[in-house]
Amino acid sequence: MTANASGQMIEAIGLSKFYGQFAATREVTFSVPRGQVAAFLGPNGAGKSTTMKLLTGFLAPSEGTAKIGGFDMSSQRLEAAGMIGYLPENGPLYLEMTPHSLLRYFGQARGLNAATLHNRLEYVADKCSLGDVWGKPIAKLSRGYRQRVGMAQALLNDPEVLILDEPTSGLDPNQTHEVRQLIRSLGQTKTILLSTHILTEVKAVCSRVILINQGRIVLDGGIADMEGSEHDMEANFRKLTGGRKAG
Fold first, then answer.
1. What is the pLDDT of residues 45-94, one digit of tens each?
2. Any idea where the domains of the chain sit in the sequence?
3. What's domain 1-83+159-247's architecture?
4. Long-range contacts at 135-143 (CB < 8 A, ≥ 24 apart)
5. Which end of the chain, C or N, has fewer beta carbons within 10 A?
6. What is the side-by-side strand order in the sheet with 161-165?
7. What is the pLDDT of residue 2?
8. CA 57 to CA 17: how far, in whole Å?
C-alpha cells in the first residue's frame, strides 16, 4: 500500500549531502514512476552511490527529501523501507552462512511468515540460479555467486521498488544475460533504479537515463537522449561528464 497517488514510486527532491565543505550531492531532483526501469549513470565519485544510500535511508540528507511510494524516508522510514529491495555495491554478506541460511535469516528479520518465506526462498533460488550453491558457505563462493546472493536478498520480500547498484558486477556473460532478462521482467510491474557503468546494459534493460556528474543531475531523459548506438552513447557520456570514463 503506497502513500503516493501520483504514481511516482521513487522521488528525490533537492537531495544534498555535505561532508564539511565537500558536496557529495547537490540539489539532486528526479522521480521514477511505477513500472519504469531507469538507468542512473555517472563517473566514479559523481554521487551515484551516495544518492542511492540517501534514497534507501542508509544516509540522512543534509538537505532535501527522499520518498519511496510517497513515504518520506526521514519520517516514515519503516513504511518506505518495507517497499524497497536494495542491492548495494559490494554489499556485506555473512561469509560463514550459506545462501539458504542467510536469506532465511533476512526473511525472518523482515517479518515474513513461514509459508511466505518458504515460497520466496524457492523463488529467489530459482530466479538467481543459486540451486547449486544453496548449502555451500558463502566464503567459498565466487564473486559472481556472491553477487547473485545479494540480488536474491534484494528480491526476497517481493518489493515494489528495486534500487540496484551494479547488479551484474562480477558475473560472466551468461549470468549477465540472465540477470538482464530478470530485470526486464521485473520492470513490467516494479520500479527499478539501476546504477551501471555498462552502456550496453542501459540499452538492454532501461527506458530512461538519469546522468549525474559532480553531484548534480546533468541529463534526465529517454535512451534517445544518450544517442542511438553504443559509440554515440559513450561520446555523449564523455561530453556531459567532462571526458571522464564511466564508473
1. 899 999 999 999 999 999 999 999 999 999 999 999 999 999 987 777 99
2. 1-83+159-247, 87-158
3. 3-Layer(aba) Sandwich (3.40)
4. 135/98, 135/99, 135/100, 136/98, 136/99, 137/95, 137/96, 137/97, 137/98, 138/93, 138/94, 138/95, 138/96, 138/97, 138/98, 138/99, 138/102, 139/95, 139/96, 141/99, 142/170, 143/169, 143/170
5. N
6. 84-87, 161-165, 191-195, 37-41, 208-213, 216-222
7. 54
8. 13
Task: Give first-to-last CA distance, the chain, whole Å.
Answer: 35
How many helices (H) and strands (E) the chain has is answered by: 8, 10
Query: Which residue ranges in the chain fall short of pLDDT 70?
Result: 1-6, 227-231, 243-247
Taking residue 38's Cβ as centre, other Cβ atoms within 10 Å add up to 23
Q: What is the pTM assigned to this prediction?
A: 0.87
